[in-house]
Specification:
The complex is a heterodimer.
Chain A (H helix, E strand, L loop, with lengths): L3 E4 L2 E4 L5 E7 L6 E7 L5 E8 L5 E2 L8 E7 L2 E6 L8 E8 L5 E3 L3 E5 L1
Parallel strand pairs in A: 2-11
Antiparallel strand pairs in A: 1-3, 3-8, 4-5, 4-9, 5-6, 7-8, 9-10, 9-11
Chain B lengths: L2 E3 L4 E5 L4 E3 L2 E3 L5 E7 L5 E7 L5 E3 L5 E5 L4 E6 L8 E8 L6 E3 L3 E6 L1
Parallel strand pairs in B: 2-12
Antiparallel strand pairs in B: 1-4, 3-9, 5-6, 5-10, 7-8, 8-9, 10-11, 10-12
Classes of the chains: A mainly beta, B mainly beta.
């Protein structure tokens, strides 16, 4: 149980385009999901908290207009990187808050912006 | 603000040897503590967690961790390491109010045959 999927697993896009990443909780409902960014050989940095039916809460320094988050259902949150640039290239990981206040993580999405 | 320190960036052990990965935290109240493991290019898998009660917690894959409040530590142990345990290990402390996690920088485990 507590499986979280992400799609796509890998995406390459041109600079200036937008990319949407989906995060789904497959066998449980999650009113809260989280989006992280991980640079090579570094830890996870929380970008935002996504709550179903309400606006996301962004961490300090994260541009909300650049990283659009939508949590339209209890099993799906999306992260859209708008007008992507090479510096946005990273590994993006989502998690869903499951039972016993525990976060369950997706497999991650590797974004490469050319 | 809470913080997590994992003093060891990289540890190498021989297969079959015992393992201890260190984790120290800073948090104003009783913490939620977690250990996650990440294989290359993958997301994080929960190994074990501590919320309250018995300070020695058992996890998956033969791992255990002990919460020591006096030392602000939550070290991860395994009596006999397998080659498949090679991965990056992250300790995290969770905020009770909003469930946010703060991660340590991780410890990369290499297992020699």
């Amino acid at each position: 149980g507590a499986v979280v999927s992400q799609h796509p697993s890998r995406v390459i896009c041109k600079s200036g385009t937008s990319v949407k990443i989906e995060c789904r909780s497959l066998d449980f409902q999650a009113t809260t999901m989280f989006w992280y960014r991980q640079f090579p050989k570094q830890s996870l940095m929380l970008m935002a908290t996504s709550n179903e039916g309400s606006k996301a809460t962004y961490e300090q320094g994260v541009e909300k207009d650049k990283f659009l988050i939508n949590h339209a259902s209890l099993t799906l949150s999306t992260l859209t990187v708008t007008s992507a640039h090479p510096e946005d290239s990273s590994f993006y990981i989502c998690s869903a808050l499951g039972r016993q206040e525990t976060q369950y993580f997706g497999p991650g999405t590797r974004l490469l912006v050319l | 603000a809470q913080s997590v320190t994992q003093p060891d960036i990289h540890i190498t052990v021989s297969e079959g040897a015992s393992l201890e990965l260190r984790c120290n935290y800073s948090y104003g109240a009783t913490p939620y503590l977690f250990w996650y493991v990440q294989s290359p290019g993958q997301g994080l898998q929960l190994l074990l967690k501590y919320f309250s009660g018995d300070t020695l917690v058992q996890g998956i894959k033969g791992f255990e961790a002990e919460f020591k409040r006096s030392q602000s530590s939550f070290n991860l142990r395994k009596p006999s390491v397998h080659w498949s345990d090679a991965a990056e290990y992250f300790c995290a402390v969770g905020e009770i109010s909003n469930y946010k996690l703060t991660f340590g920088k991780g410890t990369l485990l290499t297992v020699n045959p």
